[in-house]
C-alpha cells in the first residue's frame, strides 16, 4: 500500500460559495480545531471505501476497498495513471462526493454520515483546495483573491490584512501581491492559489495535480512552498500527481492502479 517514505482538491466554486449564516454550528463546534496536532490520531481516515458510478445502466467500480490515513503535518501523495481514480478519491476526502460504501472520518467525526450542508461547512472552515488550473478571479489582484477567500470563510475583516500579508510572504510573493493573475507567471499564479487556499487556516489542504501545468523548476518551487506551509501552519497536505520527480519530498505515497492501492 505505502510505497515510499521520506528518502527513498470540477470544483473551483467550492471555495467561492457564499457562506450560509448560522448553519451547522453543532458540526463546526465538533470539528473546529478540537484535535490538536499532537494527539497521535490521524487527521483523516479512509476505511474500506468504494465508489461506484452508474454508466449506461452498468456499474463502474472506480474505487475498490480503499484504506488510508492522513496524519497531522504529513505531505501525502496519490500517484497513478490517468483514470486510476485519484481525483475520485480526493473528491471523497474533501467531501465533494460521498462513498458508495465504507467510512471516512475527519478529526474522528464520521464525514460520510454528514449531510451536504454539514460537509460544506466543514470544508469551508477546515479544508483548502488547490486545482491544476489555479482558479483565481482574473479581475482581482493576488491580494484581493486571498481576501475573497477569507470573506467566504467568514473570517472577521479586522484580521484580513495581517493574514493576507503573512500568506503572501509564506508563498514568496510579497512583492507581487498587487498584481493581477495575468501579470504573473504560472508558478506565481499557483502560489497565489496556495495562499488563497490556506488563508483561513485549514487543517487539510487538498491539491489535484497542482504542478501539472508547470515546468520542473516551478514544480520544485511549489513543493518547497508546501513543505514550508507544513512546517509553519500545522496543515496536512494530500495531493495527486503524475510526476515521478516530486515524489521524493512526500512523507507517504499511495500508488493507485485501477481503483486500488498497490
Ligand atoms: N461522475 C462520474 N461518472 C462516471 N464515471 C466517472 C465519474 N467520475 C469519474 N469517473 C470515471 O472514474 C475513473 C477514474 O476517474 P478519476 O478522474 O478519478 O481518475 P484520475 O486518476 O484522477 O485521472 P486523471 O489523472 O486523468 O485526472 C475514470 O474512468 C472516469 O471516467
UniProtKB/TrEMBL annotation:
Keywords, A to Z, come to:
ATP-binding, Hydrolase, Nucleotide-binding, Transport
- Nucleotide-binding among keywords: yes
What segment(s) does the record annotate as region Disordered?
Answer: 1-25
Gene Ontology molecular function: ATP binding; hydrolase activity
Q: Which SMART domains does the protein's record reference?
A: AAA
Positions in coiled-coil regions: none
The record, for InterPro entries, names: AAA+_ATPase, ABC_transporter-like_ATP-bd, ABC_transporter-like_CS, ABC_transpr_LolD-like, MacB-like_ATP-bd, P-loop_NTPase
- Entry EC number(s): 3.6.3.-
Which part of the chain is the ABC transporter domain?
Answer: 44-262
Q: Does the keyword Transcription apply?
A: no
Its name, as the record gives it, is ABC transporter ATP-binding protein YknY
Q: Which gene encodes it?
A: yknY_3
Amino acid at each position: 500500500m505505502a510505497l515510499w517514505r521520506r528518502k527513498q482538491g470540477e470544483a473551483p466554486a467550492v471555495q467561492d460559495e457564499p457562506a450560509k449564516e448560522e448553519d451547522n454550528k453543532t458540526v463546526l463546534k465538533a470539528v473546529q480545531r478540537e484535535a490538536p496536532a499532537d494527539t497521535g490520531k490521524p487527521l483523516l481516515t479512509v476505511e474500506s471505501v468504494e465508489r461506484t458510478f452508474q454508466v449506461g445502466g452498468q456499474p463502474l467500480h472506480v474505487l475498490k476497498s480503499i484504506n488510508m490515513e492522513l496524519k497531522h503535518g504529513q505531505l501525502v501523495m496519490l500517484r497513478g495513471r490517468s483514470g486510476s481514480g485519484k481525483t475520485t478519491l480526493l473528491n471523497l476526502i474533501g467531501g465533494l462526493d460521498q462513498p458508495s460504501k465504507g467510512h471516512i472520518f475527519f478529526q474522528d467525526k464520521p464525514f460520510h454520515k454528514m449531510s451536504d450542508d454539514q460537509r460544506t461547512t466543514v470544508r469551508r472552515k477546515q479544508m483548502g483546495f488547490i486545482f491544476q488550473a489555479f482558479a483565481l478571479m482574473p479581475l482581482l489582484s493576488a491580494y484581493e483573491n486571498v481576501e475573497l477567500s477569507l470573506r467566504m470563510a467568514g473570517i472577521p475583516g479586522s484580521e484580513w490584512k495581517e493574514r493576507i500579508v503573512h500568506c503572501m510572504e509564506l508563498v514568496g510573493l510579497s512583492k507581487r501581491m498587487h498584481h493581477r493573475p495575468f501579470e504573473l507567471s504560472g508558478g506565481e499564479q499557483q502560489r497565489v492559489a496556495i495562499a488563497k487556499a490556506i488563508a483561513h487556516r485549514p487543517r487539510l489542504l487538498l491539491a489535484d495535480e497542482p504542478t501539472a501545468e508547470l515546468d520542473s523548476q516551478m514544480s520544485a518551487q511549489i513543493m518547497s512552498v508546501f513543505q514550508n506551509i507544513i512546517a509553519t501552519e500545522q496543515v496536512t497536505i494530500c495531493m495527486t500527481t503524475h510526476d515521478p520527480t516530486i515524489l521524493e519530498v512526500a512523507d507517504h505515497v499511495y500508488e493507485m492502479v485501477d481503483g486500488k492501492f498497490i
